[in-house]
Amino acid sequence: MKPLFASFLLVGVALLAGCASIDTVPPTAVHQPMSVRPDSRLPAPSANGAIYQAALARPLFEDRRARHVGDIITINLVERNTATKSANASASRGSEMTGGITASSRLPLGGLNGLNIEAGADSEFTGTGSARANNAFNGTITVTVIDVYPNGNLLVSGEKMLAINQGSEFIRFSGVIDPNTVTSTNTVQSTQVADARIEYRGGGFIDQSNTMGWLQRFFLAILPF
Prior knowledge:
The chain is mainly beta. The protein has a domain at 87-129. The protein has helices at 2-19, 205-209, 214-222, and strands at residues 72-101, 115-148, 154-164, 167-177, 187-189, 194-204. A 6-stranded mixed sheet has the order 5-1-2-3-4-6. The mean pLDDT is 75.
């Protein structure tokens, strides 16, 4: 009996140790994949004896801006949002009823002759609610072009990971860029990116300390108060 109990105990400890692992990458909602290989180069054109080859031409004064799958571009994160919401509601209702009983003394209800009945009800409700949110995100992240749309817009995605002691921080970004908004230094403001998805997540002991345990979440879900 004791060896069997010890076996179950060891299995339980192993399962708990597996659950305690913190080296996990947090889930993401940005466009996938977050990195791609550049398109393979076209085969070299056949030599025609000319010095100038049209297939290999490149403008002398062209800016090096992202335009192909696999190119990189730097995003300047300058997000600042403020939201305020308030609501007020009130309702009241009142009712009153008055009645009397008049009966002949020869009837069984004669003893209730002259009895007055009055009833009243009042109901009142008042509710007030307000919410306010402020957030700011500043920084830079370099992402990769993962797709080029038929109209020339660029779908970009990428992440930056910072490992600090016992934890990791992930900055992720994806969105659609109009090439006309890309500057000569191959940068673009995050406020000019369509369908932008910005994430700042963490993993490790510090991140888990801010998360409610599964058993506590279970009791919180079933408790009626």
